[in-house]
Amino acid sequence: MFKNYVKIAARNLYKQKAYSLINIFGLAIAIAFCILILLFVRDEVTHDSFHKKADRLYRVIILKKQDDGSMQSHAMTPPPLGPALKEEFPEVAHMARFKKRGDVVVYQGKSFRESITLAEPDFFKMFSFPLIYGDPQTILQDRNSVVLREEVAKNYFGDEDPIGKILSIKMGSRFYDFTVSGIAGNIPGNSSITFDFLVSFDRVKDYTPASQLNQWLGFTTLTFIELQGNVIAADLEQKFPGFIKKYMGQDIEKYLKGDYSAFQMDLQPLEDIYLNTRISSSYQSGSNPIYSYILSGIAFLILIIAAINYMNLAIARSTIRLREIGVRKVLGASRKKLMHQFLGESLFFSFISLSVGIVLAELFLPAFNNFAGKTLSIQYLSDWTTLSSLVVLMLFVGFSSGSYPALFLSSFRPAEVFRSHLRIGGKSKFSKGLVVVQFILSVFLIICTLIMTQQLSYLQNRNLGFKGEQVVIMPTHGSAQGTLLVDRFRNELASFADVKAVAGSVQSLGNDRTYIASPVRFEKKQVMSHYFLIDYDFLETVGLQIVEGRDFLKEFTADPKESVIVNESLVNEMGWDSASGKKIKTFMGRKDPLTVVGVVKDFHFESLHNQIKPAIFYIEPRWQQEYIYVKISPVNIPSSLRLLEDMWKKNAPNFPFMYSFLDDEFQKLYRAEKRWSTIIRYSSFFAILISCLGLFGLSALSIARRTKEIGIRKVLGASVQGLASMMSLDFLKLVIFANVLSWPLAYYVMSRWLRSFAFRIDIKLGVFLLAAVIAAAIALLTVGLQAVKAAVANPVESLRYE
Amino acid sequence: MIKMKEITKFYSSGFVKTFVLRNIDLDVKEGEFLTIMGPSGAGKSTLLHILGMLDSPSSGEYFFYDKPVHRLSERQLSDLHKNHIGFVFQSYHLIDDLTVYENLETPLLYKKVKGSERKGKIAEMLDRFNMVAKKDLFPNQLSGGQQQKVAVARAIIINPKLILADEPTGNLNTKEGTEVMDLLKELNEGGTTIIQVTHSEKNASYGRRIINLVDGWIVDK
Ligand SMILES: Nc1ncnc2c1ncn2[C@@H]1O[C@H](COP(=O)(O)OP(=O)(O)O)[C@@H](O)[C@H]1O
Ligand SMILES: [Mg+2]
What we know:
With about 800 residues, chain A is an alpha+beta fold. In chain A, β18 and β19 (about 595-600) form a beta hairpin. In chain A, about 40% of the residues are buried. Chain B is an alpha/beta fold. Chain B is about 35% helix and about 30% strand. In chain B, α3 (about 100-110) runs parallel beside α5 (about 145-155). The interface of A and B includes residues 334, 337 and 416 of A.
């Protein structure tokens, strides 16, 4: 019997190729989509849980009181905090301080910019990072040894044995030799803590004065602790106020007028770090869990829709097979047997879908990883939860889609079936509701896609107040000769026609990690301002406009000592009519006051999420320039870059040549938005695709039901167009209805999203109309084709059996 | 073999009851060849369906081998008819997705006949109906007469006691029709009870008794 069923199922599959393909594919696509989202979300929520002691590991965080009295959490802690905790509390089993810095590594005369991580010896005892070579107990105790990540070691040494090799690493202003004495295995993709070069925390002394290392009011270091097995974090936290009093009391008395509520200490579970975006930190970027929720929601909806579609299609198909059911009953099939057959068949189909879905997921995984910025993979064997949940899902889909024909159709008496008086699909209200829900989701996602695309292109095309395309930025990697390097570039490049201007700067425009914010005072008024420590020609190189006064000039010898340029926002904030000659005070430890000599037109130095804030510009000869800015001509860009590289190698052979374009620096600010918009775009594509399958199923069902009616109408003289539009119109109404419901939802969500940008587009009605047109066009195409086919059919065919 | 007492069948739509069969009393003895005749819409098919347990009467009693069909459960009915009754329809009603061989096999599968026995029976039928060469074809690859022969073969493969034929020659040409009727006659001579519905006097002449159905009543001629 079973063989008989399989044959029928397989022949059905073959005979109704288009139907089966669409049916299986629709579900498979949804399954693939779900698998990918599942992987993504699971990766998000299981961040850092691979450490064996994950439940006992905590990051110490500091809450600082803000001006408005609220507490703001920070991950950065005072350097002496870690050792003090370890000494004070027996509950703390291990402690590891952690710091990261970008600096230069030299090997065999070649230099590279690398990320150097400093960590305490207990690091490998606490965290489960695999060591391929080296003793985890002692490895970070030696000041002169460095642990490399496997991949990094490969890059440097190829197939040679890396152990014992010497690398020269710059710490602060000097290079030191380090011996490679450990190799760490690759770090899981969902680790918040990452490292390439790991050295002893003691090396912090190389570039930090001792006074700063004992500073309780300087927040520069991450502190991780491991609690003893039986300790509850909250119990330990109870003791922190006393601890603060003991260790920070002196400073609080001296600098904060004895306000002990200014600081608070807390323990943050390691596994909480990644999805907690409220705590400002640090070396890795967290992720907003809202993304996971929204994605899961979309994936779930898409899957449900696909599953119900699948049922609709299965029902549409099974009505065609009513006669088979009747015949089988005549031949002695019991109801149970028929139920078995139909359930078996739909399970067969749903498992084909599952297999196809898994294949699709595998196919799209690399692309998905690429835009999600992850390294996900499907682990079938080790990961039985994924697989079993998929199997359960398929059982569900198979049973629910097979149950309608199995339960409902098998209940008919053959006599009724043969009379073909039967009307199937009494639940058409439900089916219509389903189509509406699908299109609400689709239209919603289409609108989101359109608005996000518009906003992103607005961000890309907005005039930022300077011209970034031909401005090359080169970091000097903290060289002690940064300023000298700028001058050499300026002098040597002066004779090249393709180089328009050269300047130095301490800040890198677009990279707010290099920014300094501090108050500026004019008479009684104080304004928070950004400080840009620049060089002659900087404004010209970047293309900033002077709207009042002048730029810094060499002939004014007092400029480096007492002149300052401000932006329009600062002028407005101060309420000045004229800025020139105003004397302001800064808090950057230089001789005040500074005299305003010019005003620069407002430009965006932060992302367009923010308004333009007050800023001041001055020359600070005591600081080394950190970045070299070169304005080149738009022609011959490759040769200009080669020129810069040659010059770099001649003047700074110990440092790697790195460059970026100023406009790219600003584009990087919108990486999260771009990623998000890509995900939404894909989602809307899938939603539409799957909604169309639903429409297809429903219209096939309804048209099959109306075959006779169509035949008769044709005999009576109806035209093909007339019939096709009659059938399509019903569905078009549903789509329009869905649009009306979707618009307010999309408007609400998108205006919330846009509100995070200080500079944004207006939501226009056109977007909604466009989404409606897109949805309607796709729906019409889906339904119309079938309707036309039915309308064109020879009426004699459809009436023959009557 | 069959005893019907005051069988009635009606369909109600709204408050209106449409009677299709009215007070049918019918006795059929084993081995009979009975013909039911009457105008279109008279209720002939309905009566045949009720006889074949594919439909149930609105009221009245129906005994099949003294078993009260009107009181049996769906399961028991299914058992009864899959073991004793074969059906032949005007429009053949073969399963389109199965080959001739598989169509013949299906009732045996439902009867849980063993594999080897099944093969034997199918081979015998194919042989008897001269269809061996066609066993792997699908119904739509056969002519109407051939399809009806398969349908008859499928009906008798379970050795039914009763064959119900609803206008079995209605879609066939004269030659094909005669062939099918000869077959039925042969079966009847072998002891199978046959009840057929037909419009043709010629086909009616194959039977030994004729009843006329008009508007749901049995009328005497
Ligand atoms: N399911 C049903 N609902 C309503 N009327 C029906 C149904 N089945 C049959 N009928 C009616 O019963 C009458 C008898 O039908 P049928 O037995 O097929 O006639 P015959 O086979 O003699 O041509 C017809 O008028 C038909 O319309
Ligand atoms: Mg009839």
